[in-house]
Amino acid sequence: MAETLGRPMVAAAAGRPGRQAPQQQQAGLGQSLTGIVRMAVLWYFAMKFFGPKKPAEPSQLMSNLFHKGEPLDMWLYLSEKEKFKDFGDEDALVWHETNIPYAVWEQSSTRSLSLKYHPSEAVKHNGSLYAHVFFARSGYPPDPNDPEYEPLSAFSRTHSVVAFLPKSKSDKKKSLLGSSKDSEGEESVAELKDDTQVEAKDVGPVEWISYWKPNITINLVDDFTRYPHNNVPPNIAGYLNIEPTTGNYFPTIFFNEFWLLRDKLISLNETVAELPLNLELGPISLTKWQLFLQIEQSFQIHRSYGSMLEGEADELKRVFLEGNPYLLGVTMVVSLLHSVFDFLAFKNDIQFWNKNKSMEGLSAKSVVVNFICQLIVFLYLLDNETSWMILASSGIGCCIEFWKIGKAMHIVIDRSGRIPMLKLRDRESYAKNKTKEYDDLAMKYLSYVLFFLVACFSIYSLMYEQHKSWYSWILSSLTSCVYMFGFIMMCPQLFINYKLKSVAHLPWRQMTYKFLNTIIDDLFAFVIKMPMLHRLSVFRDDLIFMIYLYQRWIYPVDRKRVNEFGFGGEDEAQSNRNLVSGDASAAQEGDATTDGDKKTN
């Protein structure tokens, strides 16, 4: 059923929130799946079963003023005033329902309505609009000035229909070449100048944008718990509407916005003529209501500590909304395995490079390039104001990659000039064999391809995309190239394996754990909403590792080549033979001693 209400509109233009970096999306989801939901559920049950409970006398307990199944009437008004008193305004009344059974789980308890609303000029220009919902026992009016009004038979709650959110900084991006293809021409140029001034000063008030909430879900909580006056659970204390004369509470009205995602909000500006409004009324269980409250509280805690960005909670909810339930359950299980494999890969990577005594068969240049790529991603995340947990993880990865350079090459500080410089020198085990020759040859031709692709993509990004600054353009271009063409840096090791006809020098245990993580990332790529560029970067690792597996299959084990700990297969066989001969000699000496003792006796 659709209706047309309200007035026309004019408003301030608002930008859409910018897209997030791919690293933020995937890391945010992993944190949420393994931490936030688990934390919310554990916190809920801990408060429910192990919270402080003080004994109270029956006279000190508060109870619900209404009974289960009691019929209710509902009125919903839309007003620009936070406190509503004009019950005679028929234009403000947008929804009226009668004979709604309270806390009864039947079809008659659920009502819905869809309509079109025409906002006023004030609402268009960042004005406020409130939804005032009133409930009363059937036959009683909600207006306190009505002679038949009964204070103990009516209750209400107010909720804002317009949300005010800070304008995303990505909206301040501009064309670095100064050309704007906006159809508004002079106005867009003026906006670019204003954005440049704000960026240069980096000061000033935060710009807030008003958004329309197209869905309003009203839930009556099925709660008949008798709470002590001095021990109401803190998570629901703010929602209880206590009647002062009797000390009891009215039924709790909950405006459920748990599944209202930010991308569903409609930006309010002067071009909007009408707005959709979907209204829904129904009951909600006490457990489900408290679970929603606990999850939202967990989101707030993570945001306050910087471990979650504003949009990451929506991405988690989107997985539950749009994902298959069975696939979602599998994803939650394998996300835990992802953490385990990630830790094991990290452990074995450190162990391999810590005990490695020879660079024979290993690409030293790939280690240096990996550090550069990791540093580029870290600077890109830092420029986009990523949460500190993701920054810390990326920063630790940079430190580890730099430490690996010290294990693969000699790092020397050159103090001959005015400014001390770091110089890298090849290790003897790397320079005195064919490994360096093959590594240089592979890197030479692959670098030509890589530099050409980087140059082409950077020029394209400069001409057709917008950036905050030249520094942001450099970082975003390099980061995109790392995602798209980073697999090229894995190819020198494949070339070295091909030339040496051996893969015995590779850290297979660490690579196996990383491949298992890649399989999990493949599953996430299907479940999680992410840019196509990042999705393709996940599958490229599968192709490289499959080539590694093929090389391991076609190249037999070379027992003369040393392993990751500096020992060869022949050394191990020789040591085993020495141990066997030593045991045989010890046994012969023992037999000779025994015979001598017998002769003496």
TrEMBL record:
Q: Which UniProt keywords apply?
A: Membrane, Transmembrane, Transmembrane helix
Q: Which residues cross the membrane?
A: 326-346, 367-382, 388-406, 445-464, 470-491
Q: Where in the cell is it found?
A: Membrane
* Compositional bias (Low complexity): 11-28
Question: What is the membrane topology noted in the UniProt record heading this document?
Answer: Multi-pass membrane protein
* Principal location: membrane
Q: Which region ranges are annotated with the description Disordered?
A: 1-28, 172-196, 572-601
Membrane found in the keyword field: yes
Q: What InterPro entries does the record tag this protein with?
A: CLPTM1
Determine if Transferase is one of this entry's keywords: no
- Cellular component GO terms, alphabetically? endomembrane system; membrane
Q: Which family does it belong to?
A: Belongs to the CLPTM1 family.
- Mind telling me which PANTHER family this protein's record contains? CLEFT LIP AND PALATE ASSOCIATED TRANSMEMBRANE PROTEIN-RELATED, LIPID SCRAMBLASE CLPTM1L
> What is the protein's given name?
Cleft lip and palate transmembrane protein 1
Q: Which organism does this sequence originate in?
A: Musa troglodytarum
